[in-house]
Every structure is written in C-alpha cells, then in structure tokens.
UniProtKB/TrEMBL annotation:
Gene3D superfamilies: 1.20.5.4130, Helical domain of apoptotic protease-activating factors (1.10.8.430), P-loop containing nucleotide triphosphate hydrolases (3.40.50.300), Ribonuclease Inhibitor (3.80.10.10), Winged helix-like DNA-binding domain superfamily/Winged helix DNA-binding domain (1.10.10.10). Residues 8-100 form the Disease resistance N-terminal domain. The lineage of its organism: Eukaryota, Viridiplantae, Streptophyta, Embryophyta, Tracheophyta. Belongs to the disease resistance NB-LRR family. Keywords: Leucine-rich repeat, Nucleotide-binding, Plant defense, Repeat. It comes from Dendrobium thyrsiflorum. The keyword Ligase does not apply. Residues 182-354 form the NB-ARC domain. One of its GO terms (molecular function) is nucleotide binding. One of its GO terms (biological process) is innate immune response-activating signaling pathway. It comes from the Eukaryota. This is Disease resistance protein RPM1. Pfam families: LRR_14, NB-ARC, Rx_N, WHD_DRP.
Amino acid sequence: MAEAIVLSVIENIASIIAGTVLTKLTSLKSPLSEVHGRLEHLMSIFEVMSGSLKDIDEMKDYNHTVAAWAKQVRGVAYEVEDIVDEYSYLIRERHREDFKGHFYNLIHVFRDGRTWYRTANHLQNIETKLDYLMNMRNQFGINTSQGMTIGNNLSNHNEQISCFAESSHFKLENEIIGIEENRNVIENWLADDETSQYVIAVWGMAGVGKTTLATNVYNRQKKACRFSSFAWISVTQTYNIHGLLRNIIIDLYEGKMEAIPQSLNTMDYRHLVQILQGFLHQKKYLIVLDDIWSIEVWTYLKNAFLDCKLGSRIIITTRLYDVAINAASKSHVIELNPLPEDEAQRLFCLTVFGEGAIKYPQDLEELTQKFLHKCDGLSLAIVCIGRLLSVKDKDMILWQRIYDGLNIGSADLRDVYNIFRISFNDLPGYLKSCLLYCSMFPEGYKMPRKKLIRLWVAEGFVQKQGSKSLEEVAEEYLNELTYRCLLQILHITYKVTVSRYSIHDLLRDFLLTKSREDSFCEVYPNYHGGELSGDIRRLAISNSMSDLRLKTSHHLRSILVFDPKASFSNLMLKNSFSSFRLLKVLDMSFAPIENLPNEIYQLYNLHYLGLHGTKIKKISKSLGRLQNLQTLDVWKTNLDNLPSTVAKLKRLRHILAGKYSVLSGITITYHFVTAPRKICDLADLQTIKYLAANAEIVKQIGNLTQLRSLQIGHVTQSQSEVLLVALSKMERLKKLGVIAISQSVIVNWEALPSLPPYLQWLRLRVIFANGKLPQWFSGLVQLQHVKLLCSCLSEDPLPVLGLLPNLLLLGLKDDAYVGQRLCFQECWFPKLTRLQLIQLNDLNCIEIRRDSMPKLSTLYLKGCAELKIVQGMENLPSLRELVLDEMPNELINSLHNTPDKNKIKVVKNWILRDGIWDYEVINN
C-alpha cells in the first residue's frame, strides 16, 4: 500500500512543478524557488524508492522489520503530501490572473518568504529522513526482490481482462454450484397451497452463499410469474427503518412502473407503513430482505407486510440463528452449510479453468487440494481465490507462492480475510487505492459507476496511459476489479449498460481494517466505536453526525456524506471547512443544505464538489477561485444559472446540472441550466449535462472537442443549423441528447455529414426534416440506446434502426413515428432487449416476423390509442415482460384470444385499467 501512496505523491509533485502559475513565480530567485528545487529532488528519491515499495506490496509474507520500514516510508510520504498540498493551496490562494495580479503575485512571493523558508527547511528534514530510511534498508538487509514473481504476469492478461470483465457477471449462473437442493426446497415452499403469508429464513456463516441462493431463487421467480410484485432490499448492520421502508416502496413501485409517491423522503414511520400496505393490498408478492442483523429490525418491518391470504412470501437472509427462528417458523428455516468436497472441487475447476472443466492438471493436484482445504467449502472464498488463479500461469511454483500467502489461522472469519488479503496484495498499487476507496461507501450501497470513476480521478488514483482519457483508464480499472470478483456488477432491468457496482460485506470489512492501518480512510460511525484518528486522510459519514467532531482531523483530503438527514448548520460547516482547507473531495449529495458557506470557496485544492440532490439555489461567483476543480455536480438541485466565473475553471472536466421530472417511468419535463458563453473555452470538458442553449453557446460549443457526453436543451430553429456544425467537430462524443425548445423545431439532419462514430447513447426531441432518418444513421454501429421523441417520421425508421448491430434499447415516443404500421422483419434488431412504443397516435398495427428481436425481454406499449393488433408475439422467444399502459381493450382481448396463444411462452403482463395495475399471465 505504501507504493500507491508514494506514486500519488510523485504525481502530485509533478503536477505542481508543471503548473504555469508556479513556473512564473519560481523563475525569480526567492525562497519559493528553493522549495521548488527540493520538491524535484524528493520526487527523484521517491521514484527510486517506489520500485522497492512495489516489491514489498507484492511479497507473499514479509516480516515485522520490512513492515515497520514500509510504514515509516508511508509516514514520510504523507508528510510530503501535506507539504505539497499546502504549497499548492498557498500558491492558488495568492494567485491572480489579471494584469494587476502579476504584481500582486510577486509581492506575496516575497511577503510569504518566512513561510517558504519554513517549508524549505521541512523538506530538507524530510530528505534526511529518506536518506536514513534508504540506509536502514541496507543496514537491516531488507530484501524486496523475493515478491517480484507474483505480480509480473499481470500485464500479459490486460487484454483478456478487458474482454471478460463485462461478461463475468453473466457467468455467475454457471458458477452457482451446490444450491440445487436448497433452491428446490425454497421453490416448493413458494409454490405450495398455503395462502397465508409466511417467512422463509436462510442463515449461515458469512460468505457461505446465502445471498447467492436468495438471488437465484428471486430471479427465477421473476421469470416464473408466480408473484405479481417483487422487492429486494439489502438491510445491513447500520440500518435505518425509515430508509428501509422507503427502499421497499420504491422497489415495488418501480417494478410496476408506477409513479413513486410524493414527499416519500419526509414521511414518518406510520405513513410509510400505510403507503406500503396500500400498495400490497390484494397483491401476491415476494420480498427478499438480505442480511438482517437484529431481531429489532424485523420487528419493525414485519408489521408493514400485509397478509391478503394470496400466498405471499418473504425471504430473509441472516448470519444470526436467533434472527432466523424469530422471523420464521423452524419448519421454514434453512441452514446453509459450506459446499461438500466434490461440489467445491467443481466450483474451483470451473472458476480457475473455465466452463466444462471438471478436473485439474495432475501436477497441480496437491496444490488444488490445499487451496480447497483452506477454503473449506466457502463458495465466496473458492470463487475469490479461483479468479486470482485464473489470470495466473498454471505453474506449480507460482501457485505454491500464492498458497503460502494464505496464512494459516483459526476457522473463523480470519480465514476469509486471508483470502481477501492475498487477492488485495496481488493488485497493483493504483488498484489498491481504488478498491480501498470503495470501502467508504455504506454497507450494501449501490455505487454509481460514473461517480466512482470521477472520484478516483479527483483523488489522483488514475494514471495517464497514452492518448486515453483518465476516465477511460478508470473504466479499465473497474473492469479489472470486476473480473477479479472484488466488485460485483449490479444490473438494473431498464438500463442497457452497467450503471452500479457493489462490494461484498466481508471484503468491505477487510478493506476498512486495512484502510485504518494505513490511515487511508475512516467511516463514521465505525463498528469498533473508537474515536476518529487525527491522521486519517478520508472520511465517510454514513449516519447521524451530531456527535462527530470534525476539527480533530486536520489531514483530511476527502469527505463523503451518505446520510441525507445529516444535520448541517451554517456554523458547523464554517467551522469544519475552515479547518480542512486542503480538501480535494467534498461530496454532500442529498444533504439538506440550501446555501454554501464562503469557506467552501476557499478550498483551493478542491477537485470534486458534489451537491447532487441538495436544495442549493445559487452558487456564488467565488466558485471561480476553485482553480483545481474537475467535477461540479449540481444535478437535481434548484439551481437555474451557473455563475459566470465557472468559465475560469480551466481544469473542469464534468458539469452535471439541471434535472427532469418523471411520471410512470416516462420523462415528462426537463429543466436546463444556463451557463456563460466562455464555458466553451474549457478545453478539458468531457461532460455537460442539461445545458440550456443560446445563440452564443451553440456557436462556440464546437470548440469542446474533448466532450464525451452532451445533453443540451431549449434549442431553437435558428440555432439547430449552427448546432449541427458544432456536433460534426465532436469526434469523441459517446452520449448526445438534443431537446428542442418546442415541438415545432425542425432539424435538417441531412445537412450533417454524420454524428460521431463512437456514439453509444442518443436521445433527440426534434422534428426530422423530410420525415425520415438521415442516410448516415445506419453507420452509427456503436449505438446501444436510441430514443426519438416528437420526430414526426412519416417514413418507417425500422429498416435503418433494425440493422444497427449493437442496439439494446429503442424508444419511439410522442409521435416519433406518424405512420400506421410497423413491421419487424427477419434478422432485424439482433441484440435489442427493450422496446418502448409510447403515444404513437397513428399506429394501428405491429407485425413481428420470425427471427426478429430474438433477445427482446421487455415490450412496453403506452398510449397508442389506435393500436389494435400485435401479430407474431410467439416469435419473441426471450420476451419476459409485456407492459400495456393505457392501451385499447381490443388489443388486450386480441392477445388473450389469439389462436397461437399456446405458442407464446409465459410472459409477465402488466395492464393499466382505471389507474390500477393488474397482473396477468399472457398464456395458460
């Protein structure tokens, strides 16, 4: 871990030295130039030491002397990091960019001479410490070469890891071994004739596969259509009853695509229970409560689950037997035990050697048995160590070294931690920091992919690789961690790409322990209930912070707030942030704050400012002081305008602003944020979300050639032609949304040679000139997500859209097509999984030919008043969900009375009648 910290310090020093501001000021002979020189010298020393530290981090089992030496180096690195950040802060605090500012800067260089002399002396002392540590390594014979073998082969697998990372989640079904018997028992209980609601409890030690079993049963039941409503909630240790009830309600409403009740976040326990019971009335539901830690939480929750005598079921998983027998009768309790030897061996071979493997090479037989003995049937441990071995050479000596890293301990959770430790130690330094960072998120938290990437970049964990952007490199980091089974992909059914990740609770516990050892981060409140260390660098607040005294930790670089009810008084914010002037990351998403104290605008080192979901209405012009800011997240706030000074933030990479309102899963209103024209001078910008167009911005936005994501609204007729010219310059664009100011704006897309070739996501709410798609549309072969709104296409768009090879989601809404018939021809839409046809007022017939849309799982039809016939439903082999929202009765009756009804597989069928969702099965 010391290596990762030293590498971060090297990057920080290099960034400071390369800064244009510093270059101007240090060209003068002053104490500042001496500081500059000593920093360069320290960077050289650390570059030499980083090799030794890398070897130590990869060693299988180093002794206390080596550990103590590495700890000393880490401590010195932290000292240098403090100096570098303080140095950067003072330079930025004193800097001005206007003509008068040049003289102002010079004055302060000399006025602060005493500060710079102290800094130079401090750096000189650190040089002495580093010399001593280098001598100590030689004096005590600290050998760092023995661990080099373990990590050498990683680079050879980069291409393989990149290819397999996205698909690893989908292989988990094949990796589920040894649960068939218990799964059959549970499924028999779910299907029995008992009409009264009852609870099924699955309990066992951590990592034995409780969640895996419950997940598999839950997913199979969603496909089997025995229940009409489903919800899955992770409870965790630090539960909040109100939050759990809200999550259950949200899961149930989203599953039915109903609008979530307003003011849900402010409701008390009684009202939340009433809302939940009202929803569950006369429904047969299946609810999974994963990882319950106390009888108390079950006592609060069980009263909310209405028993309508329709055969509803609740599945809970827990590590505690007392919880299991309190929630369920003993006849409905399953104790999950470790895998027997034969099934453990099957799982190990599958994970290490791939599908179809049932045996291992003879020369690895003895080591395989050793690994299996160490895992002792724990499926999580088998998969974790198996994934590690799968990316290694099948070499006996190498496997022996890895096994030796699994220190023999007692038969409790320390055995699992040892397995996590070897997987962690095998990571390169940059991935260690990224993984440790994930432990700051609350237990059971669904970590947003893009946010995680931006935070890693802001923290300086991501290393530049050739022409790739830092965000693209961070995406590769995510893929590698996913493939190593250290992060799990969470798929949300209506999404077409991976949007969130999770981390196993056991792994998170291990990482938190490691983080505390290295002063990397701390979580408040923590499990051990101790005081916050004054040396911690990062702090996550996941619960009430009324007793938290932030002033005690002056080394903080990051604060992440996860409690939406955290009490932030202006006085508390002022006092806190005046002490943490070296902060790089401040995320207060969903915190109940309406104004930002001026002290935040003095955090000159800030790279990430997260105000997502707060009640902020205005941001001061003082924002322009935050010259290091990379991400400004004011998404879903009450902000109407960005201050003019945002254009001064030359390092800004992501602007997330604006919001939208949703009803029944369909976007109905957009709120775009106005910005200054000079925002188009920010050359590093990669993301602009919900920007209001005006004549000047549309004219200049083509300068932003690094943009990967652009969502722009309020586009007028006259601006549309200029915008097309700008779009032709954005070759790196992957996500594009264009929303016209009214439904009368016509865009001549034929005037554009083509949209960027790498485009993956497209949403357009404009009228297409000539009523047809442009010719170049068929060339957008990377497109995965397309939504067209108010397009008034008179020519059938399917012959073009159907040939897009990677299209996963297609939505046509609000007269996007004004023809009467849509015919889905053979071999069209080979990867489409979700189709939305919404308010196409002239559409009266849909025909689906054989071999069209072979992977379509969800068909959503809403408000197509003239649609009476859908022919060929039996030609959709993968269809699992049909949603009919405000559709004619003739269509509903035709689907039930079709002579080919017996050819249609069982499909969940949601029908909205008189404002109430009914559940049916489309065939008998």
